[in-house]
Specification:
The N and C termini lie far apart (45 Å). A six-stranded mixed beta sheet has the order 1-6-5-4-2-3, with helices on both faces. Strands 7, 9, 10, 12, 15 and 17 form a six-stranded antiparallel beta sheet that branches. With 400 residues, it is α+β, with helices and mostly antiparallel strands. The chain has twelve helices and 17 strands. Helices cover 32% and strands 25% of the residues. The chain has two domains: 244 residues, Rossmann fold, CATH 3.40.50.1110; 136 residues, Galactose-binding domain-like (Jelly Rolls), CATH 2.60.120.
């Protein structure tokens, strides 16, 4: 019997109501059974659970977008990541559990792969659950950046366990198709909020509003489902956990499915990257360190950056913002509009400038233009950071 079938049987048996054997499983049991995409290879998870069983500190971490950060959860303890952390705390009451929430709203795995060291890996997590299936497009590039993040996590010396959680938008869409290719290649346990609940919504047995607070973000009940889907997998492994002497060997990291470019990625800010030209730009803080801001058209900012894929993060908001133009070496200029025509706030936008570059230094030139959105009353432009991927190992170490 394979692991997925075994899990389904266990999940159904756990959730059956008191009823005759002729009756069908209850709705919650079916939801729980559908949530499982794959059990994957649980060797890493077994070692983490054994560590917790021994009473050694375990670092539980989640990374993702605004769902992970906790949007629409009415209280911090209702966020899905906190639900997961609470399970660890209650299951191992004598074990110190440290919880790290590395969620940042409106970011995808493209930014996540670069900021992993800054916000996640420095905490030396033992267990990581990643949620990017709504913010990422369902594309090969999104799978490639998720692969970069995955390889960084699995490559840590303490050999952490990693899981993927797939959420959904109001149309039932997500990046699960491409993300699950990465999950299967690295044999990660995977669970799907979409697979579990979308059939209930389509069949009118559940309303969208029963589990969602808006077009994307789960409400408290939805967050609880997400957390429970993750912990159901972990708990199944715990209940079958062998003695320490019988724990399985951890398989070596396989060759990349798409690439390892975003495994070698970092965030560069004013503390780690000095401009070669800075005319009209001033330091300005963001969630990614100290960036640069300018308000006068004609302001120029220039860097030399090493890597085979170079990107920028800049701030978009409905305010007195303008348009900047970025150029990498002698390539075609790319325009970035900081005006964002929505009232819910601002976010950090990702812009890939170029990839598949030759190794060595590359010139990044940013100029604030005269043009702006018609509704904007200014030209302010905030570069949060420069992102470099595909960088040599020694260069990455110097920036961390």
């Amino acid at each position: 019997m394979n692991a997925a079938i075994a899990y389904t049987i266990v999940a159904l048996s756990m959730c059956l109501a008191v009823q005759s054997s002729a009756e069908a499983p209850d709705a919650e049991g079916q939801i729980m059974a559908r949530s499982l995409v794959s059990m994957g290879d649980t060797a890493r998870l077994q070692h983490v659970l054994a560590k917790a069983r021994r009473g050694e500190q375990v670092v539980v971490a989640v990374i993702g977008g605004s769902i992970t950060e906790g949007a629409r959860a009415s209280r911090p303890e209702y966020r899905w990541g906190n639900v997961v952390a609470k399970w660890w705390e209650q299951t191992f009451p004598k074990t110190p559990i440290k919880f790290v929430n590395a969620g940042i709203g409106a970011t995808g795995s493209n930014i996540g792969a670069h900021r992993a060291q800054m916000h996640l890996l420095k905490h030396k997590p033992d267990f990581v659950a990643a949620e990017y299936s709504v913010n990422d497009p369902n594309s090969e590039f999104a799978a490639e950046t998720l692969e970069g993040l995955t390889r960084q996590v699995l490559g840590l010396p303490n050999r952490p366990a990693m899981m993927l959680l797939f959420t959904m938008n109001r149309a039932g869409g997500n990046a699960q198709e491409w993300h699950s290719k990465i999950g299967r290649h690295y044999k990660l346990p995977m669970v799907s909020f979409r697979d579990a609940l979308w059939p209930e919504i389509e069949a009118d047995r559940m309303k969208w509003e029963d589990v969602e607070g808006d077009e994307i973000h789960p409400n408290d009940r939805g967050h609880k489902y997400c957390g429970d889907f993750v912990t159901a997998v972990v708990d199944k492994v715990r209940r079958e956990l062998p003695a320490d002497a019988e724990l399985p060997a951890i398989a070596p990291l396989p060759a990349p499915l798409i690439s390892d470019v975003f495994e070698r990625a970092t965030v560069l800010d004013a503390k780690t990257l000095a401009p070669t030209v800075s005319e009209g730009w001033q330091p300005a803080d963001s969630r990614f360190g100290t960036g640069w801001v300018a308000e006068e058209p004609g302001s120029v900012l220039q860097f030399e950056v090493t890597g085979t894929a170079i990107s920028l993060i800049y701030y978009r908001i409905k305010g007195p913002t303008g348009v900047a133009q970025a150029q990498l070496d002698d390539g075609a200029p790319v325009k970035m509009n900081a005006w964002f025509n929505a009232d819910w706030g601002g976010y950090s936008a990702y812009q890939l400038l170029a990839r598949d570059l030759p190794q060595g230094k590359h010139r990044v030139r940013i100029e604030l233009l005269q043009e702006k959105a018609e509704a904007s009353e200014g030209h302010r432009f905030h570069v949060h950071a420069v992102l470099a991927a595909g960088i040599p190992a020694q260069d990455r170490e110097e920036t961390e």
